[in-house]
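DM from R.C. (forwarded with permission)

"hey, sorry to bug you on a friday — could you get me a structure for this? deadline for the figure draft is monday and I only need the backbone to look sensible"
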Amino acid sequence: MRLFAMVSFPKAFMPMTLKHSLSTPGLRVSGLPRAKQRLALRLRTIQMLAMPEPHVARLIAEVERDPLFEKIRPFIRRVRFPSTRFLWPYDRADLQEAPDSWHIDWSQFQTEMECIQRMGQEAFERHFLYEEEGLSLEETTFRCGISAEEARTVRAFVYFLSLHAPQTNLPQPAAEHSTCIAKIEWADHKPHLAWLLPHLARGRYEIDYEGIKSLQSSRQLQAEDKQRLRKLLGTLEMINGRHNTLWRILQTVLETQSRFLKSERKTDLVPLPQSALARSLHVHPSTVTRAIRSRSLLTPWNKEFPISAFLPNRRDMVVSAIRELFEEEESNKTDETLRKKLASKYGFAVSRRTVNECRHIAASDEFGVGYFGGGSLRMSQ
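My reply, with the result:
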């Protein structure tokens, strides 16, 4: 089945497209001073964080299908984020409670699968998924032993997987427009990310600006190409900034909440308010809010939670501890008894007034019971 007949990439699917991109450090530019260019680039990157994943995938597809990108492809390669991998949809049979909304009929992609089988899984991931060497189309077809048409079809297949992101299994209203982006796995006694979306698994662009400068001076680019090049590279840098920010947030979550990710006990979560996370990453709190909104993760035991659930504040933890005490038939205890129990068992020194407030929250569904099975942490604001 030919993917080109299936997947369309409209020129204007979002307010921010190539024409809104900014100048890229490393190239000679005119217009705004460099300091203002960098500030504007950061602002555009923050806006891009709020884009739904299918829209980002479509933007990437639009960029990489641009004939100008093909001309500079030898000077661009992908660099994966450390200790991450891509979890192929047809390798997800063990995810019994994972998002099952791909509904991919693999029989429709016999041409693509035959090409992948012929070149081998390792060659496919190196040259099409991760594109680690930044080869031209001709070099890629020679290395993989396939035709140029087959190579374009396989590339479109990778775009197709990103555009058809798995929907979430979270309860409403958290499920609205939400995307499950990765599964957390254990390897070498540490939690790692297995991306569910190819455009995130491919990491960031590494751009050889010196090589691009030499291409410009060699007169291989037309005047129109030179004018568009600055904007195209600006878009690549914004995509890099977006993906790098998201990865840094998730790495901090994995490192901070590793105990919970191993024990499955919600009381093993560590307080990590979004404001504190933002300070540790040297970004604005709104950046963290945009990055995690409408995105979820699968735990090692295949339960799906919104990323915000991994960022509880101290009060969230007290509520969670009281819920656990309620499960141990402590619900009829006085506030003072619960206060002492919280101090002795969990190390929480809180007032009776706080205990009273939190026990009412723990006894209600106000903050989304269900994210962690019998009870959930309140989603931090």
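R.C.: lifesaver. The first helix runs from residue 34 to 49.
me: no worries. The mean pLDDT is 78.
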